[in-house]
Design a protein that fits this description.
Helices cover 23% and strands 24% of the residues. It is of the alpha/beta class. It has two domains: 2-116 and 161-245, Purple Acid Phosphatase, chain A, domain 2; 119-153, no CATH class. Strands 4-5-6-3-2-1-15 form a seven-stranded mixed beta sheet. The chain has a six-stranded mixed beta sheet with strand order 7-8-11-12-14-13. Strands 9-10 form a two-stranded parallel sheet. The longest helix is centred in the C-terminal third of the chain and has 13 residues, at 162-174.
């Protein structure tokens, strides 16, 4: 069995047996995939407790990264192979699916490409190394402004590198531009415009995904990021709290 859900932000209560009773029939050979913003943050006792609880569930949790993960910690994990693609093991049964990979999950071919551009920071990004950091932070806090802090609540790696973009193209070429499912955090520019023309602006990643969409044969493209549950087209699905089964 394979299920998919949207952003968790470190809150995994949707996976308790009351909210997700289907797990009673699942084993570690079954998967639940999170479409980004899984909630892998700077290590803490609370996070370790939550991850340990999730790792003890009967299924295996897979996730693509969003724009709210601690990439310093995530990218410090060793790169390993899993079901035909590259991954990071957060726990034995909590696995990060890296960008531009094609996985064979129980006979289903899945292309993954995490990442997204943070859009809700009108006051910008602060840097702790800035000698005026504390002064700037106090001012913004007093104003109630929205900002993030480099390597604390924001990481440049939320957006892919040129290598990751090229790797994704090359990998799809190897698979003749045909997969069963595409799992991302944000979505192609053309789909994003159907969701919100004003709140979310297109960027190099959404344009890249649009370029892929033109050539790619797929059954469904499932993504998170936009905090809603909605069929955008007959093939493109936005998901948030819901957990849907694809196999």
């Amino acid at each position: 069995m394979i299920y998919i859900t949207g952003d968790c932000h470190g809150d995994y209560t949707r996976f308790n047996t009351k909210n997700f009773p289907e797990q009673k029939q699942m084993t570690k050979d079954d998967f639940v995939i999170v479409c980004g913003d899984f909630g892998f943050w700077t290590p803490s006792k609370e996070q370790e407790h939550q991850l340990e609880w999730l790792s003890q569930k009967p299924f295996t949790t897979l996730f693509v990264d969003g724009n709210h993960e601690c990439f310093d910690e995530l990218y410090n994990l060793p790169i390993e192979e899993f079901c035909g693609g590259k991954v990071h093991f957060v726990k034995d049964s909590i696995i990060h699916l890296m960008r531009g990979q094609v996985f064979n999950l129980d006979g289903i071919k899945v292309f993954t490409f995490g990442g997204a551009k943070t859009h809700d920071v009108p006051a910008g990004i602060l840097d702790i190394e800035d000698p005026h950091f504390k002064q700037k932070k106090r001012k913004l806090d007093k104003e109630g402004a929205k900002y993030r802090i480099n390597h604390v609540s924001w990481w440049k790696d939320e957006m892919p590198s040129e290598y990751e973009y090229r790797y994704g193209f090359d990998n799809l070429e190897k698979h003749d531009w045909k997969v069963d499912y595409v799992i991302t955090h944000c979505c192609p520019s053309s789909i994003q415009r159907m969701i919100s023309e004003d709140e979310y602006k297109t960027n190099e990643l959404t344009d890249y995904l649009d370029e892929i969409k033109i050539s790619l044969s797929y059954k469904n493209w499932i993504f998170g990021h936009y905090h809603d549950n909605k069929m955008i087209t007959d093939k493109d699905i936005l998901i948030y709290e819901q957990i849907i089964r694809i196999k």
